[in-house]
Amino acid sequence: MKQSMANRGLYIGTGAGLILFALVGLLPGSLIGGIVGLKIAGLIFGSPVQSMLIARVLVALSMVAGVLGAAFVFVVGTGVAGWLVGTVIDTLRAREATTAEALESSKK
Where are the domains of the chain? Predict the structure, then answer.
């Protein structure tokens, strides 16, 4: 079964996004999520956040949300970019094949 270049581009882009996320996005996503969690906990429980269990859980959940958000941006963004490049390549190949068929039919 022959895959189109759009599918190949999607797989290549998604793989590149996973690698980029592991190298560049994991730590900043956790950091930004933690800062947002501290801000939310500060608004709910008071500015110097005490070490209550609920505040810690809130910060941990926001860190996980930050990591998942960064993963979504990296993986989906590069996947869509790879799919677009593959679609352009498929379109150019189809146009080239159509032009070649038209030239052959005009010679007959």
Answer: 5-101
